[in-house]
Specification:
Pfam families: SF0329. The protein is built from 10 helices and 3 strands; from the N terminus they run αβββααααααααα. With 189 residues, the protein is mainly α. Strand 2 and strand 3 form a beta hairpin.
Amino acid sequence: MSWSKLKQQLEGFLCPALNGRVEYRAPGYRYLPDKSGICYISVDKKNVLNMSDKTNTIRWYQTELEIKNDPDIQIPITSDDIEAIRKATKGPVPEDRLIVMARSRKSTEHAKELMSAQAALSKSNFILVANKFMTTPIEESLESSDMVLNILALVDRRVGKKRILSMAEKMELKHPVVRYFYELRRGRL
């Protein structure tokens, strides 16, 4: 599918509140067929999703430690997580220490997931992901680990206000760029 047709379809799926505010751009380079070009998602004429842009307001993590130390990311710990640590230690460990160990394990797993998603985003071809979005059910796009699929689903008109509001807890674990589009959709930006 050509870029202009894909762009028209993507912008046709935008929710009415974001229509005209969110724009998809993919400048192509005719004489460089082996280059995929640069893709942007812009909001109010400002490029929001562009990894190489240093003036970007979205925080891009450089290390897993930055993710683990980010106070904006709240990782919920369940009793199953604590029980798994208790079985792994095979000995008497104070309850408060088990909680710390479970939180550390989950934050490490989460940091690895975010770093791999961020690395995949920098290498991804936006047009391939956008084509996948057009053929994938909206629920799968919302639950996906691919940040671009998450963003495209969040700004989609098929996702209602109630569903957006019910996703608040899940969004705390997402990358800042996904949270940005979530807040944009909620109407807070």
